[in-house]
Amino acid sequence: MHFTEVSDLKKKIHWAESELDRAKRSIKNDEGELRQAKDDMAKAKEEATTFMSQRDSVNRALKDVKAELESRLKEKIIEEWKSSKEGEAHNVEIGLEATAVATSDTLRRVQIVLAEFAPSVGWDDIQGKYDSVLAKEREDLRAQLVAQDKVDGGVADLSDSGSASTSGSDSSNSGDDDAGSHVDVVDP
Predict the structure, then answer these.
(1) Which of 141, 110, 128 is nearest to 182 (CA)?
(2) Left if phi > 0, otherwise alpha if psi is -120 to 50, otherwise beta: which for 162?
(3) Cα separations (Å) of 148 from 87, 88, 143, 144, 145?
(4) Fewer CB atoms < 10 Å away: N or C end of the chain?
(5) Residue 1: which pLDDT band, with cuts at 50, 70 and 90?
């Protein structure tokens, strides 16, 4: 019986060795699959990083394009408004307001100088003549704008604005005494 036991033990050892070899092959196979999975995961992370970087670049480019388009749209709206009747009327009013500020300062200075060097000359007469010249210039400007079809009849009401440019005026051309503007000057 000893021979049978040895034979059984040999079979069991052979079977165990064969199972061990199969297990080693399986472990080796699993280790290869694990390495492949790790490599695949590293590639996936790298691709994800690249994708996210590309996505960020595209988002930045889209943001820049959007900002550029918004800027161009704003510029176009402003340019269209500037060339509209309302925009042109606004520009005329701004110019007239600036002229009024400069003119009132100049008139104040002229009144001061006139009071010092020619006190006998009445300021009210000078103011009246100035107002009539100013009214004539306003009417001329209004007629010019209406003729050019730039400003609709009353859009830029120049008669009540209290300002106008005096360049190129000849005070002898106007006899109007119902002026649209009167600058009150205070003696210093």
Answers:
(1) 128
(2) left
(3) 15, 12, 9, 6, 5
(4) N
(5) low
Which residue carries 């009401």 as its tokens?
157
Q: Which residues contact 135 (CB under 8 A, 6 or more apart)?
A: 159, 174, 176, 178, 179, 180, 181
How far apart, in whole angstroms, are the C-alpha atoms of residue 187 and residue 117? Answer: 14
Q: Token pair of 136, please?
A: 């004539």
Selection from 119, 144, 129, 124 nearest residue 184 by Cα:
124
Supply the range of the domain harboring residue 141: 85-173
Handedness of CA 60, 61, 64, 66 (dihedral sign): negative
Residue 90 lies in a domain: yes
Report how far apart, in Å, the C-alpha atoms of 50 and of each of 11, 44, 53, 54, 64 are: 57, 10, 5, 6, 21
Q: Indicate the residue among 26, 55, 83 that finishes a domain.
A: 83
* Token code pair at residue 125: 């007469």
pLDDT in tens, 105-146: 888 898 899 888 888 888 888 888 888 998 888 788 777 776
Q: How many CB atoms lie within 10 A of CB 16?
A: 10
Determine the pLDDT at residue 7. Answer: 87
**Phi–psi pair at 92, nearest 5 degrees:** -60, -45
Question: Are 97 and 79 in the same domain?
Answer: no
pTM of the model: 0.40
